[in-house]
């Protein structure tokens, strides 16, 4: 799903093939080595709304200070845009010098928090070996899944594989929220109600599954907090996973509230369409152009949802109840609204749309997909114009 809204690519589009050279990795870490989780906060760009996770390996004795980053992709991939849209674009691990990356993070005005992990030398070595193995050309690529397999979960899994049962995460932390809830929380932090509204429309029922504490770590901040409370078994006792935690950089506030929210906009639009409809009734007229535009756009959006459901592999866009109010059949049929040959079919289509929207509004609370409240005035507009068109055609 990062293909929609979780990119961390702006600095790396330029660096991918410049900096992804064969890094001279030392095979053995020294006693002075450290491994730390670096969590980057959100930035102003939509693709970075939820932050990013990086695993840093530092060993001054061996002149190693490298970040391992699972959020890379090759923009020169064949059929890049098609694979990007379909969710089949392979992602890969990158290795960058910490000193080179840090200025990019600051330039993006992102918070930077480092947690040095409480690990034995043997555990640090195993983690490092796993990262180096992942970095080999034949192992770098993986099929990215925003909720289930991303830049954060990959790091979590590396640590879990290296430490086994000696590493324990809390099972109750953030366990009662859904994937969609977490998206909305971080969208709210950026005060971008329109991006939140758009994401709610594009993702389907899978986004409403409860994450549990383990799966909630797909959000970088959640993984950082999970590491805070995690325990590791050393010297016959449970100890904190975190040796030290430092806020390296605190950004300026970049969030900006948008002038009008989706629910305000569609409520205002509902009033406008209500006035138009009242004027039509009084003057016995039909502003057919408004209906062609309205149902043409909603039908087109319906086809987009169909494409995301059946022809992509994002894993989160299936079973989308938003198709109830944006029937794809309206596009392009709506542009032949006065064609007598399809009049009976159009009458049935508009009647069907009225029934579906009425059912959606009546059973709103029982639908397994959490829909944005801004849909209420929007579907109200569609329902109102469906009735008017249906009456006109009859």
Give a short synopsis of this structure:
The chain is of the alpha+beta class.
Features of this protein?
3-stranded antiparallel sheet; 10 strands; 46% helix; 2 domains; elongated; endopeptidase fold (from Nostoc punctiforme); 394 residues; disordered N terminus; alpha+beta; 7-stranded antiparallel sheet
Q: Helical content, roughly?
A: 40-55%
Distance between the termini: 44 Å
In one word, what is the shape?
Answer: elongated
For the biggest sheet, the summary is: 7 strands, antiparallel
Number of helices: 15
Number of domains: 2
Uncertain runs with pLDDT below 50, 5 residues or more? 1-23
Strand fraction = 15-25%
Mean pLDDT: 89
Q: State the secondary-structure class.
A: alpha+beta
* Total strand segments: 10
Physical arrangement of strands within the biggest beta sheet: 6-4-3-2-1-5-10
Tell me which oligomeric state these chains represent: single chain
Radius of gyration: 25 Å
CATH architecture of the largest domain: Alpha-Beta Complex
Annotated CATH topology of the largest domain: endopeptidase fold (from Nostoc punctiforme)
The CATH class of the largest domain, by name, is Alpha Beta
H-E string: HHEEEHEHEHEHEHHHHEEEHHHHH
Explain how this protein is built.
By secondary structure, this protein is an alpha+beta fold. The chain folds into two domains: 213 residues, endopeptidase fold (from Nostoc punctiforme); 132 residues, no CATH class. Helix content is 46%, strand content 15%. Helix 5 crosses helix 6. It is elongated. It starts with a helix and ends with a helix. 36% of the residues are buried. The N terminus is likely disordered.
């Amino acid at each position: 799903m990062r293909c929609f809204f979780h990119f961390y690519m702006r600095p790396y589009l330029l660096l991918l093939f410049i900096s992804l050279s064969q890094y001279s990795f030392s095979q053995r870490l020294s006693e002075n080595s450290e491994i730390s989780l670096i969590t980057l906060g959100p930035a102003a760009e939509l693709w970075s709304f939820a932050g990013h996770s990086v695993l840093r390996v530092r060993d001054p004795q061996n002149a190693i200070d490298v970040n391992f980053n699972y959020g890379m992709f090759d923009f020169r991939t064949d059929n890049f845009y098609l694979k990007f849209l379909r969710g089949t674009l392979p992602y890969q691990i990158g290795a960058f010098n910490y000193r080179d990356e840090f200025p990019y993070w600051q330039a993006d005005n992102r918070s930077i928090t480092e947690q040095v992990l409480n690990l034995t030398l043997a555990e640090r070595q195993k983690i490092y070996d796993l990262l180096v193995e992942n970095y080999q050309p034949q192992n770098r690529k993986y099929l990215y899944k925003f909720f289930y397999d991303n830049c954060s979960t990959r790091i979590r899994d590396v640590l879990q594989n290296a430490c086994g049962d000696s590493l324990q995460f809390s099972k109750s932390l953030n366990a009662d929220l859904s994937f969609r809830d977490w998206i909305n929380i971080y969208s709210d932090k950026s005060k971008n109600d329109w991006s939140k509204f758009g994401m709610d429309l594009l993702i389907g029922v899978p986004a409403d599954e409860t994450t549990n504490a383990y799966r909630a770590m797909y959000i970088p901040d959640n993984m950082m907090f999970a590491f805070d409370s995690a325990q590791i078994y050393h010297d016959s006792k449970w100890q904190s996973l975190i040796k030290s935690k430092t806020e390296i950089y605190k950004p300026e506030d970049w969030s900006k509230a948008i002038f009008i929210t989706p629910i305000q906009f569609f409520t205002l639009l509902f009033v406008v369409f209500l006035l138009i409809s009242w004027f039509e009734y009084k003057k016995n007229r039909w502003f057919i152009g408004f209906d062609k535009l309205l149902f043409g756009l909603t039908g087109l959006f319906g086809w987009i949802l169909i494409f995301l459901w059946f022809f992509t592999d994002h894993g989160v866009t299936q079973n989308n109840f938003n198709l109830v109010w944006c029937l794809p059949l309206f596009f392009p049929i709506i542009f032949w609204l006065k064609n007598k040959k399809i009049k009976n079919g159009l009458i049935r289509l508009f009647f069907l749309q009225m029934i579906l929207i009425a059912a959606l509004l009546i059973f709103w609370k029982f639908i397994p997909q959490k829909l944005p409240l801004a849909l209420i005035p929007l579907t109200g507009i569609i329902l109102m114009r469906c009735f008017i068109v249906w009456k006109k055609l009859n």
